TrEMBL record:
Name this polypeptide is given: Exodeoxyribonuclease 7 small subunit
Organism taxonomic ancestry: Bacteria, Bacillati, Bacillota, Bacilli, Bacillales
InterPro entries (UniProt xref): Exonuc_VII_S (IPR003761)
Keyword set includes Cytoplasm: yes
Keyword line: Cytoplasm, Exonuclease, Hydrolase, Nuclease
Catalytic activity: Exonucleolytic cleavage in either 5'- to 3'- or 3'- to 5'-direction to yield nucleoside 5'-phosphates
EC code(s) of this entry: 3.1.11.6
Function: Bidirectionally degrades single-stranded DNA into large acid-insoluble oligonucleotides, which are then degraded further into small acid-soluble oligonucleotides.
Length: 84
């Protein structure tokens, strides 16, 4: 099994996480199975968080500065800009 197969994509992990949540919310899951599902859900949640952090680090925004365009790393909370 390759690393690509072992680690689901963000979309796959989110789909799987949604299925787990639906199962747990149904209330028809035995306790042992619910614990397993919860643990799997926590791992998927962490994986999704890591993938989002990786993407966030890669995102750059283009800013107009001194008549030209400048690339700047994305910083959470700065997405609204200065509005000058």
């Amino acid at each position: 099994m390759t690393n690509q197969e072992a680690t689901p994509s963000f979309e796959q992990a989110m789909d799987q996480l949604e299925r787990i949540v639906a199962q747990l919310e149904s209330g028809d899951v035995p306790l042992e199975k619910a614990i397993e599902l919860f643990q799997e859900g926590m791992k998927l949640s962490q994986l999704c968080g890591q993938k989002l952090e990786q993407v966030e680090r890669k995102i750059e925004i283009l800013l107009e500065q001194d008549g030209g365009m400048v690339k700047k790393p994305f910083q959470p909370g700065e997405e609204k800009g200065d509005n000058r």
